[in-house]
Task: structure prediction
Amino acid sequence: MVAPEEAKTLPAPKGETYKKKKVRGKHHLSLFAAFFRVGIFGYGGGPSSIPLVHKEVVDHYGWFTEDEFGDLLALGNTLPGPIATKLAGYIGYKVAGLFGLLNAVVATIFPSVVAMIALLTTLSAYKDEPWVQGMTNAVIPVVGFMLAQLTWQFVKKSSEGLGWMRALLLIGLSVVLMEVLHVHPGLLIGLLLLYAVFGRWGLQQKKGDTE
Amino acid sequence: MIYWHIFLAFFIPGILGYGGGPASIPLVENEVVDRYSWMSTEEFSEVLALGNALPGPIATKMAGYIGFDQGGWLGAAVGIFATAAPSLLLMVLMLKLLLKYRESENVKWMTILVRPTIAVLLGIMAYQFFFSSYENTGAVQTILLLGASYLFLERWRIHPAFVIVGALTYGGLFL
Result:
């Protein structure tokens, strides 16, 4: 039995944190509370709620150390899919097993999904009211701007990873393939992933490969 | 059948979207608007815009609402499951393996190579939003709202929640 406060000082081996905890009931409550807060205070989608997850998991409950969380985040980002549920699920699993996984994921997404369904079904009842129209009309350019910010972040990160020349080349290629030739984006992404894993001809020598 | 379609529509963005939920939204749009025609671009923009006014992860909010819209509560559950489960399963099963290969060039390149394509998808979506705003409210209001967004979000770093609530209020009163 280890209280959460003492946990910070435990030299837990990587990826093995609290696998054999016995006080599950308390952990489930804490897990739910932690990810419920992340779910209702995180604005701007999963990635912008990562600092909140960090605050709960590292600072508040001490389930993971700073380094472990860093590793977890880095590796989570190499996998596809929403980051919020990946983090919640994995952390829940490590803290309290399979039920912990479900608990943390449900706590993260449930409040916002219910709010979403409630808001949109209510609004669609008043869909033709001019003030509802006005509200949606005004919020669209704002969200468009947020998407533009996100686009710019991805462009910048692309150039950091590839250099401007190659980044622009790939951006141009993506535009032509998806917008002009109407290739399904999934197909393009799938091919790029295969290229990353199996080839990268002409991109870099294979010197850095592990085994 | 509809549940199978809901599953596919969210499974594909869930396993191909790199960069978290917001980055996978254009892929969701591709399925929901272009392939299954459950919504028009217009309606999708509205749902996404209002979704952004609420807290919490965006990918599951979209999946939950669109699934609910198409197939009730079971549809919502299927949409959320298809969005979150595959990547979470990969995470739980593969983290040890990934830790071992964390320095592997191939793993790093997967993320690096996909970014420009995601950037294009997001850029196209931003453009669609600007265009539909221009169609709905005209050039003056669009430019005004974009300028205000720039000032509040980029310059003064106001929390997005407040900016969105502000926009909703402005729209409800003046548009």
Notes: The mean pLDDT of chain B is 88. Residues 2-174 of chain B form one domain. The first helix of chain B runs from residue 2 to 16.
